[in-house]
Amino acid sequence: MDKFIQDLRYAARSIIKNPSFAVVAIAALAIGIGANTAIFSVINSVLLKPLPYNDPQKLVMIWQDHRARGGPEQEWPTPSNFKDWRDQSRAFDHVVAMVGWGPTLTGDSDPQDLIAAGVSYDTFATLGVQPVLGRDFREEEDKAGAERVVILSNRLWKRNFGSDTGVIGRSIALSGESFTVIGVMPESFRFPIKPEPELFRTVIPVIPAGCQRDCSVLRVIGRIKSDATLESARADMSVLAASLAQLYPDANTGVGSTIVPLKEQIVGNQKPMFFALLGAVGLVLLIACANVANLQLARASSREREMAIRAALGAGRSRIVRQLMTESVLLAATGGALGLMLAYWLVDGLVALSPPGIPRLEEIRIDSRVLLFTFSTAVLTGLLFGLAPALRGSRTDLGNTLREGKGSSGVYRGHKLRAGLVVAEVSLALVVMTAAGLLVNSFVRLLSVDPGFKSAHILTASIVMPRARYPKDEQARQFHERLLDRLKALPDVESAGAILNLPLNGNNTDTNFVIEGRPRPAPGQRLAAWYSSVTTGYFDCMGIKLIRGRGFTDQDKPDGPQVVVVSESFARRFFGDEDGVGKRIGTGRDDKPTWREIVGVVGDVKHFALELDMRPNMYFPHSQISSRRMSIVLRVKGDPRKLTNLVRAELNGIDNQLALSSVQTMDEIVSSSVATQRFTLLLFALFAVIALLLVIIGIYGVISYAVSQRTHELGIRMALGADRSSVLRLVLGQGMALSGAGVGLGLAVSIALTRLMRSLLFQVSPTDVLTFSVISLFLITAALVACLIPARRATRVDPMVALRCE
Fold first, then answer.
1. CA dihedral angle for residue 6, residue 11, residue 12, residue 17, rounded to 10 degrees
2. How far apart are CA 676 and CA 357, in angstroms?
3. What are the φ/ψ torsions at residue 669 (nearest 5 degrees)?
4. 131: how many CB neighbours lie within 10 A of its CB?
5. Is 675 in contact with 355 (CB distance < 8 Å)?
6. CA nearest 663: which of 681, 650, 683, 647?
7. Are residues 783 and 699 in contact, defined by beta-carbon separation less than 8 angstroms?
8. Residue 203's Cα: distance from chain center in Å?
């Protein structure tokens, strides 16, 4: 132990004597270790830590599988199927359901739309969480017509009720109805389904009475029995699905089940992004290690006489290696400590920049596992960059070194190793930069996608009309007509409209239909398409192209001929070369469908994401199919945001118990739809810039050191007649040879590794030739710039001074 402390003190003194070396080395390590720690803290919290529920590995999401019907593998279950799963499955202790609910909280303050959920009475017990105040739901409260009770989230309790413990038993007004508060959830509780609800009620009263076997609206979670496995649960559900298909052929033929572990469901689609980021930041750390190793080699060359004297005094090679390794580990530990401090700041920045879709965002923090990772990374980093210089520095020719003087025997010692490290740096940097370049290319292509509408100068906002205040559909229709008339009269408003589901909000609703004159599809093969209810003027306001026929007009009355407008992909898929305008489709009940005439075909609109394919869509006139939840859209002159207060005032002028929520411009919605891709791109770009700077420093250091070691040689060359351009080419050639070798090796590695990024790219091949060529050329140019400064210094060597010094 005494020897270790002695080595540590000597290492500290040695590092302090070389402050410029210490600052550069520690800074490079701090950046590399700090970035790795920050990314690992995100991966640890999001991907590695178990979910904060009781026995979380037994929790699964249960979906309907519609692949046999030409649909998705994960379709929301229907209320009837949920009840059958709950009552008949033998593999689960609990099967619980949840559905979105959007009440408006009214009271002393302005009306406020809440994100809420209807949940089965035993949902919290299934998760292993109980209210911190009050009680949980009871089974009799999860039935139609039951007493209206709610449980508050901790956030809502603090924000709207001032953390008042007396809130239990209080009545609150939600969408015009009175509810009794029976509980408050713990502050640490996080609901597994996003967006995070602020309020909970029982699920059965939320489901409309007519929404049963053909109504896909639920999310379902199951807890597998302790003596069952995931495989046995899947087998059990397969048998149950086959039984239901026989009992209800019209609704359940071709409907299977998909069971996904809850953790996989929550974080599964984020894995490629985070592991790609960890790989990129790991490469940055390796580049930093190579840089510090190069600095160590240069320093070792200048310390040859010191090492020779230590050897002459009896120090063995292992003793010298241990001393040099102690210095390396001390450097790494110092860099690790500073990197940990940097990581705290980076984690806060990552959380602030992260898009809303990142799961478990609120759980991200630096904990004991992250600290262990940082410590291990620092130690391994010290060993990694310190071993080669230590072994090189311990090999000393005592006679030559002591006879020739300081550093003279080591003109080319370690040159090949330092050159190899530069080649490795360049190749690693090319991998990171190529990945960033592919993401830039992908993002540019994503932004160039036509969403099917013109987003500029559009303000949007949502309004939810409670059925208790507007029990009749006619009242909802008249309200929206009145509001839109008032909004059209506002200054700078060019047009106005409303739609059930805004484009790119990630939500839409589908329904079955039949085409008049065609045979009724067999069970499990029924036609389906997404649909929205829109007002007159919506297509013009959004700039959606009318391809054939007409849009909706004021003549489309509730009691008039029923009409529908379809998207271009709908007409192409279901009518092919035929003109769909004038044809009729039937929606609603199979035995008595409502027949609607197709009066127009409009352009396709991206409803889910810019990178997803267009889907067949139908639009119904709001005058004939009204909705109590609509999003208004206003096309205005200038900045749309300036009209927010005027729109709210017009709403209050009609009904001051309604809330204006989700106020956004359409440009903001489009930007939010690519937030995850933008976040990934920004981090990769940051890592690429760091990698490039480290490479430039590394190349500059190697060439600069080579020039200083070859001063005598260059002086002789110039004394023998070599001009400055020859010396310039000589030095540049050395640097560009290393860079070229690094680029060649980096291209080979990039071609192999970027294939792993396929899921992160849009319309770009992971081996895109243009991207690889541009990044390679850019890196070579940067290397050339790094070589120019020492090369120009070499051309200014005075032959007489160089020869006289020698």
1. 130
2. 7
3. -65, -45
4. 20
5. yes
6. 647
7. yes
8. 30
Q: Where would I find the beta strands (DSSP E) of 439-578?
A: 458-464, 493-499, 509-515, 527-534, 546-549, 563-567
One-letter identity of residue 226: S
Phi and psi torsions of 121, nearest 5°:
-60, -30
Residue type, 754: T
CB 651 within 8 A of CB 660: yes
pLDDT in tens, 343-372: 888 888 888 878 777 787 778 888 888 888
**Residue 584: beta bridge partners?**
597
How far, in Å, CA of 703 to CA of 208, rounded? 75
In degrees and rounded to multiples of 5, residue 751 shows phi and psi of: -60, -35
Q: How far apart are CA 531 and CA 527, in angstroms?
A: 13
Three-state DSSP at 94 gives strand
Give pLDDT tens digits for 34-82.
888 888 888 888 888 899 999 999 999 999 998 887 778 888 999 999 9
Residue with tokens 């059965």: 204
> Model pTM?
0.82
Is residue 632 within 8 Å of residue 484, measured between CB atoms?
yes
Q: State the Cα–Cα distance between residues 431 and 419, nearest whole angstrom.
A: 19
Residue 766 near residue 757 (C-beta atoms within 8 A): yes
Nearest to 405 by CA among 309, 538, 482: 309
Instruction: Point out which residues pair with 219 in neighbouring strands.
Output: 98
Cβ atoms 707, 793 nearer than 8 A: yes
Please tell me the distance from the alpha carbon of residue 300 to that of residue 291, in angstroms, as a whole number. Answer: 14
Q: How far is Cα 226 from Cα 243, in angstroms, rounded to an integer?
A: 25
Cα separation, 681 vs 764, whole angstroms:
14
Q: List, for residues 197-253, the tens digit of each pLDDT value.
A: 999 999 999 887 778 787 888 999 999 999 999 999 999 999 999 999 999 888 888
Q: Which two structure tokens, joined as six digits, stand for 170? A: 């209080």
Q: Which two tokens stand for residue 326?
A: 């102690």
Virtual torsion, Cα 467, 111, 151, 207, nearest 10 deg: 20
Structural contact between residues 779 and 460, judged by C-beta atoms closer than 8 angstroms = no
Euclidean distance between CA atoms 28 and 806, whole angstroms:
35
Dump the DSSP string for 587-601: ES-SSSPEEEEEEEE
Locus of tokens 């609607």: 596
Chain segment 638-689, per-residue pLDDT in tens: 899 999 999 999 999 998 888 888 899 999 999 988 888 888 888 889 889 8
Give CA angle at 15 (14, 20), nearest 5°. 130
> Residue 152 is inside which H or E element, if any?
strand 149-152
Cβ contact 182:151 at 8 Å: yes
Q: Are 428 and 623 in contact (CB under 8 A)?
A: no
Cα–Cα distance between 156 and 653 in angstroms, integer? 28
Length of the chain: 806
Other Cβ atoms closer than 10 A to 729? 13
The strand ranges marked E within 203-351 are 219-224, 256-261
Mean pLDDT of the chain: 84
Are the C-beta atoms of 795 and 717 separated by less than 8 Å?
no
Give the whole-angstrom CA distance, residue 711 versus residue 721: 16
C-alpha closest to that of 425 among 788, 28, 794 = 28
Antiparallel, parallel or unpaired: β 594-602 and 563-567: parallel
Which is higher by pLDDT, 70 or 771? 771
Q: Which residues does 725 contact at the CB level (< 8 Å), separation at least 6?
A: 795
**3-state class (DSSP) for residue 447:** helix
Helices (H), 644-798: 644-654, 666-673, 675-709, 711-719, 724-753, 769-795
Q: What is the DSSP string of 45-81?
A: IIIISPPSSSSGGGEEEEEEE-GGGTS-SSBPPPHHH
